[in-house]
Fold this protein.
Amino acid sequence: MNEQSTSTGTPLVKRGLAEMLKGGVIMDVVNPEQAKIAEDAGAVAVMALERVPADIRVDGGVARMSDPEMIEGIQEICTIPVMAKARIGHFVEAQILESLGVDYVDESEVLTPADETHHIDKWAFKVPFVCGATNLGEALRRISEGACMIRSKGEAGTGDVVQAVRHLRTITGDIKKLTQADAPELFEWAKQLQAPLPLVQEIAQTGQLPVPLFCAGGLATPADAALAMQLGADAVFVGSGIFKSADPAPRARAIVEATTNYNDPAILAKVSRGLGAPMTGIGMDELGDLKFEDRGW
Amino acid sequence: MTVGVLALQGAFQAHIDKLNELGAEAVEVKRPEHLEGVDALVMPGGESTTMSMLLESSELFDPIAERIDDGMAVFGTCAGLILLATDIEDGRPDQRSFGRLDIAVQRNGYGRQVESFETDIATTVTDESVHAVFIRAPKIVRLGSDVEVLAEARGDAVLVRSGNALGAGFHPELSKSTAIHRLFLDSVYN
């Protein structure tokens, strides 16, 4: 058979993995034991990190990329994709993660930013990137830098879903408005959003982002996951919400079931039963000054 | 004629869009009652371990197996191919499959995501070249004698057929090519 050359690291290949994660739950894990629990519970991927956001919040100090040894320990035990976080703008951490063969890099506001002006040039990598966003303009700037998946930032480590809801609604609400705008209004939208005009025009046509939109930041219960899905998320990240709860394995499993059956209240009621205490959490109004969502430009 | 697309997790919407583009009615299958009125079934890409677990908890596994036994045409891509294979290498011990294609597959057989690739392939079923996207794809490492190879890439079988089951290691739903979905729909119409 006549065969042509093969290409790796293309936009289609990078976005393709995000397509495969749709309808699934990506879980934060800090060691191989938790990774095993996550995979057993039906996670579609794990995020390998040294401390979950709730602990980063409590500990303070500088939060950086995880130790490669720890990431490799999780890669060895998992058959599902393994993601890891790099600091905003820290392209060398991203280079290291790519060389480890992680399946997705999260350029994450949960870690302490390394650059106060520039995000990573994500087109320069074969490994795909996910980035957080609080609004459509931020999402489009990240996509123009090469992000292959956008997630709401929410407010990680709080167990409070309110910011994730705000960010999702802001992004999807503005997309709806774009589809109603005429050509001169789209020029103005591009200025307001501080985003490239061709991307704004494309979204006005298609009514959706050119990459999948996932929800992250503060999800703690099966109902939270279903809420995100009903609000238009393609999949969910659950960070501290699983392993900071009283009984992680059944909660993880229940959140997986809820993400698939997000439109079925009877199933949601069934899987929400008897899960023990969720993470205690911190309400947004008692949070103080450390807001991860303000990081990123 | 209605094609069901298993919608427990993964790239099911891309399959629905592709089937609609070809004029077929496509519906999501999440629960046993959704199988009623479905003439064929697509199993999409995604995480096969997640889908295997959700097939059990949704009580879909046995009804789907019965329908395939009754002759329903079924098409699996990537994770869907794994769900149709008789043997899964590097799978989880509790991972179930329908075993309708007598092949052994190695999960993530081409490596991690940075090794994922796209390429044009030739097939025995159409003259046109098919653009094939492989995402952490399963590799077919053993072929049963009754399994027909319809396309190869990098020296491995990547599109196979046996009886009413069609399987692809790649993602025809992610590229502009429609040839593979047309091949499946032809088998349903005839």
User: Anything to note?
Assistant: Chain B has one domain: 2-189. Residues 179-189 of chain B form the longest helix (11 residues).
